[in-house]
Amino acid sequence: MLNRNALKGVRVADFSWVWAGPLATLLLSFLGAEIIKIESRKRIDQTRHGSITTGDSFKDFNASPIFNNANLNKKSVTLDLSRPEGADLAKKIIAASNLVVENMRPGVMDKLGLGYPDLVKVKPDIIMLSASGFGSSGPYREYAGYAPIFAAFGGLAHLTGYEDGEPNTMSGVMDLRVGTASAFVLLAALVHHQKTGEGQYIDLSSSECVSALIGSELMQYTMNKTSPFRRGNQDSIMAPHNCYRCQGDDKWISIAVATDEEWRALCGVMGNPAWSQDERFATVYNRWVNRCELDKFISAWTINYTHYQVMTMLQNAGVAAMPSLSAEEILSDPHVKARDLINQVDHPVMGKKVVINPSWKLSETPAKIRQASPLLGEHNQEIFGGLLGMSREEIKKLEDEQIIY
Fold it and tell me: Which of 93, 270, 384, 393 lies 20 to 30 Å from 285, alpha-carbon distance?
């Protein structure tokens, strides 16, 4: 195995905050990119406080596990971007970078003098990604872009939930999907730059990222004029296809049967009960039509076993089955351990913290966690003094003036 990084030599000026933007740069950092997080004590990243859902829960800006999880491997500098001197220093960092990432509302970076037209003057081939709720054009451009909002507008919330329940508002998971999409398009832009030498501006709409995940449902309406609806864990073709209660407190197993062969295997594991020979369950279509009754019979069987017992019995018979695991169960699962998904970093304030390794395995350019998240402004001297060549006296003066702040 060669000990190389896929993105070694790529530097990112990271103005993003909360989750969507930071996840994108986190993924790039796993691949070896150098991420310089540009933040400020005047505008603290929400996740340094806590989270939008749990409220402020950390007294120290450097004691947030939430921030740590989203900002591993990164460096932190502090600049008051509302001051011209702060924006000018940010431009100097950008001039030495390959990518710029931000997820503020449209127009904010332009007001700071850091919009794309400003940046190409200092770095003509810069690649800039701006992620917002609805993109920088159109009548909704200035609308707030919190995850439940673009999950709803993008259509996924309408499809997620039980048939007799309300749409699922979704939450941070939507930010993470936007972060993944952002990382992907940034990699595509880097490939384009490698081939042509050209930079570009990427205007990313979070709601459109969500819509891209439900293409088949949008096509169903386009072609057939029927709008798909929520159906919980049910499938449009397969049955049984659901989560079934098992022994224990809130323990469940997911089972999916696609063919007659798999159905016969499931029946065999259950001991071929008399009800399984009923005409209502004789074909794929019949099982789907009578899926509610079928689910009752299967639940009466699964409740007698633990979710791992059901998984083992069914998987050994060639039936797709997997427990619905709690966070505690994920961390202790033998397959997760064998895949080395769980890691531990030593944070200077919080001590040893459990984090999640990259889930992909690259043989020649392994993705990895190198260090914990940065303290606020931890790398001011390294970046301003080292990368930009400023003297300690210059840095101290700007700190006293609260420009480096």
Answer: 270
Residues 41, 169, single domain; the answer is: yes
Number of domains in the chain: 2
State how far the Cα of 360 lies from the Cα of 358, in Å rounded to an integer: 6
CA distance readout (Å), 402 to 42, 83, 283, 395: 10, 9, 73, 10
Tokens 């700071």 belong to residue: 112
The answer to whether the beta carbons of residues 154 and 125 sit under 8 Å apart is no
Choose, from 14, 45, 175, 295, the residue flagged as catalytic. 175
What the block records as the tokens of 72 is 């591993």
Q: Compute the Cα dihedral for 75, 177, 162, 253 and give only its sign.
A: negative
Quick check: helix, strand or coil at residue 132? Answer: strand
Contacts of 306 (CB under 8 A, 6+ apart): 246, 247, 248, 251
Residue 123 has pLDDT above 70, yes or no: yes
- pTM comes to 0.93
Whether 186 and 247 map to the same domain: the answer is no
Pairing of strands 127-132, 34-39: unpaired
Distance, in Å, from the CA atom of 364 to the CA atom of 8, rounded to the nearest integer, reads 13
Question: Which residues does 65 contact at the CB level (< 8 Å), separation at least 6?
Answer: 350, 353
- Averaged pLDDT for residues 378-403: 98
- pLDDT of 227 > 50? The answer is yes
Residue 175 bears catalytic tag: yes
Which are the contacts of 189, defined by CB distance < 8 A and separation ≥ 6? 99, 127, 129, 199, 200, 202
Any domain includes 16: yes
Both tokens of 206, joined, read 């979070």
Contact 75, 11 (CB under 8 A): no
Instruction: Give the CATH number of the domain where residue 271 resides.
Output: 3.30.1540.10
Residues 18 and 152 in one domain: yes
Domain membership of residue 289 as a residue range: 241-324
Residue 194 falls inside a structural domain? yes
Q: Domain check: are 18 and 153 in the same one?
A: yes
